[in-house]
Structures are given as structure tokens and as C-alpha cells.
Specification:
73% helix, MetI-like fold, 2% strand, mainly alpha, 11 helices
Length: 264
């Protein structure tokens, strides 16, 4: 196997150039006071870090967590039963059902978001304007990211050994208890994967909150968008580094839980 190690060299070069070096540059930018991305006249400063004590930053983080939490909650609530039904059904065209779930993702995401905006602002839809509310942002986030919850769970359920469930049924265990003791624990890794895939874009995105929220519901992604539009690269880099750190911690946390749940 050692003779094939050379094939990994391009991968490590790619990783260093496109992942490691940008992070190093962003960290360096957080300690500089400069105009845009130009290093001309740049000076060492903690200006970006001092801005973190601004109460508006805490509000943006709180809004992001609220939207991400409820998006994940409803995606699990809807996604798991959908994946379970498709996986355990006797339908011959399971792939067709999955294709119907994928079809909305083939259209441009902004087109779908704007379509929801038109519905929310139409008096014939629900009788009152939902646009500009936290509920509308969460609803559109759920409809956008729901497939990312369904597919990981479905994949795990499809690989599940049906013999374990049949053995439980043969022993006279009620179906619901079989689900709680056998199916759910063995499929929880799919739920963890779905949570990561939904939580991260829901918390850090800006298109849904900006469009559906009409600029009233601002998330951390909207802050990143605005600071980079103003060429404020030092503060934007700091927020980007913090978001990347949170993402890494979330992934490590769920990876640890996933390992602990695996049978020995």
C-alpha cells in the first residue's frame, strides 16, 4: 500500500491551497486594519474583535440559532416519517417518489424563494401578509432544506438489516417498541447527518432571510453579506472564521455522538 501514497500528494496540495491557506489569510486579516483587501497602509489592530461586543451581533446570532433550530426540528418531524414510509413501503417505484422529492431542487433556489414571496404577499393565499416574519423564514427554510434531511435517513433505513426487525416481531415485541428499540437507534446516524446538512445552511444562509424576511429578519449570513459589500474584510474575515469554527465544532459534536451510539 505504501507505493500508492504518492497518489495522495495532489490531494494534499489541493487541500493546502484551497482550504488551509485561505483560513490562514482570513485569520491574519482579523488582526489588521485596512481598506478592503489591499494590504497597503494596513496596520495591526483589534478593531474587528472590539465590534463583537455590539448587541446587534448577539441578536443576529440568536436569530440564526432560532431559525436553524426550528428548521431542523420540523425537518426531522416531517423528514423521518417520509423516509420511513418510502423505505418500508412495498411500492415498486421508490425511486420515482425520491425523484419527486428531488425535482424542486432542480430549479433555481432563488426562483423558488421568490415564488414563496409572491404567495405570501398575495391576499388570496392566506388572507394576510406573511412576508417579513420569522415564521415565514422558517417555513421557507424547511421547504428548501427538507430533502437534505430525508435522503440521509432514507439511505440508512435502506441499509438496515430487516432480519433484526423480523426477529423482534417474532419475539412478540409491539411494533412501536420495535421501532424505538431497533429501528430508531440503528438509523440515528442518518438523523445526525441530516441535522448537520440542514442546520448549517439554515443558520448561515442569507437569501431566504433577506427575501422572505424583507430585510427585517437578519441572520449571521446577512451580516457577512453586508460587511463584504462594504469592503470590510477584517471584520468579515473574523465572522467567517467564527462561523467556520462553530461549523467544525457542530460536526465534531455529532460525530462523537454518532460513535457513542454505534454498537460495540
Amino acid at each position: 500500500m505504501n507505493r500508492f501514497k504518492g497518489f495522495a500528494i495532489p490531494y494534499f496540495i489541493w487541500l493546502i491551497v484551497l482550504a488551509f491557506l485561505p483560513i490562514v489569510v482570513m485569520i491574519a486579516f482579523t488582526f489588521l486594519s485596512m481598506n478592503g483587501s489591499s494590504l497597503e497602509g494596513a496596520s495591526f489592530s483589534f478593531e474587528a474583535y472590539n465590534r463583537l461586543i455590539d448587541p446587534s451581533i448577539a441578536k443576529l446570532i440568536w436569530n440564526s440559532l432560532i431559525v436553524a433550530f426550528w428548521t431542523v426540528f420540523f425537518c426531522v418531524l416531517i423528514g423521518y416519517p417520509c423516509a420511513y414510509f418510502v423505505s418500508f413501503s412495498k411500492l415498486k417505484n421508490k425511486l420515482l417518489i425520491l425523484l419527486l422529492l428531488i425535482l424542486p431542487m432542480w430549479s433555481n433556489s432563488m426562483l423558488r424563494i421568490v415564488s414563496w414571496l409572491r404567495l405570501f404577499t398575495s391576499k388570496y393565499f392566506v388572507g394576510f401578509n406573511l412576508a417579513g416574519s420569522m415564521e415565514a423564514v422558517i417555513f421557507v427554510s424547511v421547504t428548501t432544506y427538507l430533502p437534505f434531511m430525508i435522503f440521509p435517513i432514507y439511505t440508512i433505513l435502506e441499509k438496515l438489516d430487516r432480519g433484526l426487525i423480523e426477529a423482534s416481531n417474532d419475539l412478540g415485541v409491539p411494533k412501536f417498541k420495535t421501532f424505538l428499540k431497533v429501528t430508531l437507534p440503528l438509523s440515528i446516524s442518518g438523523v445526525y447527518s441530516g441535522i448537520i446538512m440542514v442546520f448549517l445552511p439554515a443558520a448561515t444562509g442569507f437569501a431566504i432571510s433577506q427575501t422572505i424576511g424583507l430585510g427585517k429578519i437578519r441572520l449571521i449570513g446577512n451580516l457577512l453579506q453586508s460587511v463584504f459589500e462594504k469592503n470590510n474584510y477584517n471584520f468579515g474575515s473574523l465572522i467567517s472564521v467564527l462561523v467556520s469554527l462553530v461549523i467544525t465544532l457542530v460536526i465534531l459534536l455529532f460525530s462523537k455522538f454518532n460513535k457513542e451510539k454505534k454498537p460495540c
